[in-house]
Structure formats: C-alpha cells, structure tokens
Amino acid sequence: MRFSSARAGYRGGMDYDFTTLPWGDAYKLIVGSVVPRPIGWISTLGPTGTPNLAPYSFFNAVCANPPMLMFAPVRLEGGRKKDSLANVERTREFVANIVTEEALPPMDASSAEVAEDVDEFELAGLTAVSSVVVKAPRVGEAPIHFECVLEHIVALGDGSEGAGELVIGRIVHADVAERVLRDGKVQPDLLHPVGRMGGPTYARPELLEFERKPQPDRRGSSCADVKVPCGRSRRIFGRTEER
Asked: What's the pLDDT score for residue 3?
C-alpha cells in the first residue's frame, strides 16, 4: 500500500504546524475536532473537608481489568493546579459522576472558578450523598457514580499554563440508578447522556445502531485473500431508520 504525502493530497482549508502553534489555539482546534467528548463530573474533598465538584471533558474509561477511569485537568494561569487535582493528590480518591441532559444547568454552575473553600454542591443546588467506599461525596442528582481510588498521575507538559495531568483512578464501587437500566444494562435512551462539543456547546446522542457481522479469522491470510463482510447501520432514538 502506498501513502501519498499530506501536502500532495491537500484539499484547501487550514494547515497547522503544531510545533509552533500557541497552546490556546491548539486547544481550540482539538476540542472542536475531538467531539463529542464524555463529561466526568468529578467530586473530591478539599483540605478542610469541603466538597468540591467540577466537570471535565478530558474524561474517559481506559481499562476494564482492573477497571479504571481517567480525567485530565488543564493547568490554569501561572501553572496553578485545579482544585480537583490538588484534592486527589492529597486524598488519593475521587468520584466520577455521569452528566445527563437534565443536569446541564447545575453542571455548568459547578464549573465556576471559585475559592477552594467554596462548596460547589451548595453553589449549584445539588445534593451531596455519602459514598460507599471513598470519602468524597457523590452527586445525588446523577444516575451513575464511579467511586475511584488513585492509581496513577501522569504529568503532561512542563507544568505551565495549558499543561496538565492525566489522573487515572481504579473503580472500587459503582452505583447505578434503576431508572437508567433495562434488563440489567444501562440504556442510552433512559440515561440521556450528553457530550461536550467545541466552545460552549453540548450534544445529545443520536444513537447509530451498527449491526456487526462475524469476522473471519484472517491470521495467516494475505490482503488479497480477505473478504470483509460489511455490517448495516440504522439510526434509532425514535428517528427514521436508514438502511
């Protein structure tokens, strides 16, 4: 297989050199392109025991055995750490609460930059519920909570503004509301999840149900020998199906 150079196949638009691009411009391009991003509503405990809560769209599941989640807070002006990171470094635990469409207004309120002794649960009008294993509270209004203990913190960048840390937590307990379950599984049409887009925008999922076909064992075969079966897809969530 041959690969043409990026410039040879260039189709216009904008061309970016990330080795010289200011970090703020790089950030805008990344968050506008890598979409939608799941949102982790991270709750921790401050140094005086005050609950802390903040949303992060640099958030995802990263491992199943052992089960792990991650979030990645970006350094603030002057390289200052966000309270969530400082709290996790000290307590070595956090709770990842899943954000739903109904929770967008209080989630937005909890994103405000406030002093570390301000209770974002109270600020956003939310209910702090005791967790089962960790000391950090859960968001009572969220339907799913993952209680995590710290596994790793990986420094990203040089610690200046725009740099960050990758915070990886091992899940030790989960709580799932019955209202989002069907046949024992979390259902997106009941969960009403939201994702972060570029800028101040959010998205709800239009679920694409892809019917995967069994794939043959292609080990030992040449590319010319492989016949890949194609699946079919349809859009659901009450919309017209497409075949």
From this structure: 39
* β-pair partners for 170: 68, 149
User: Quick one: pLDDT band at residue 212, thresholds 50, 70, 90?
Assistant: confident
- DSSP summary character for residue 91: H
Q: Note the pLDDT tens digit of each residue in 38-60.
A: 999 999 999 999 999 999 999 99
Q: Which fold has domain 23-203?
A: Pnp Oxidase; Chain A (2.30.110)
CATH 2.30.110.10 location in the chain: 23-203
Question: Tokens 């989002």 belong to which residue?
Answer: 180
Q: What gap in Å lies between CA 38 and CA 60, rounded to an integer? A: 7
Residues 53, 50: Cα–Cα separation, whole Å: 10
Contact predicate 57/31, CB 8 Å: yes
DSSP secondary structure string for all residues of 169-209: EEEEEEEE-GGGEETTEE-HHHH-B-EE-STT-EE----EE
- Taking residue 193's Cβ as centre, other Cβ atoms within 10 Å add up to 20
Distance CA(58)–CA(27), nearest Å, equals 11
The one-letter amino acid at 19: T
Question: How many Cβ atoms sit within 10 Å of the Cβ of residue 107?
Answer: 24
DSSP 225: G
Write the CB contacts of 163 (distance below 8 Å, at least 6 apart in sequence): 74, 75, 79, 155, 156, 157
| 133 secondary structure, DSSP code | S
* H helix or E strand, kind and range, residue 33: helix 23-33
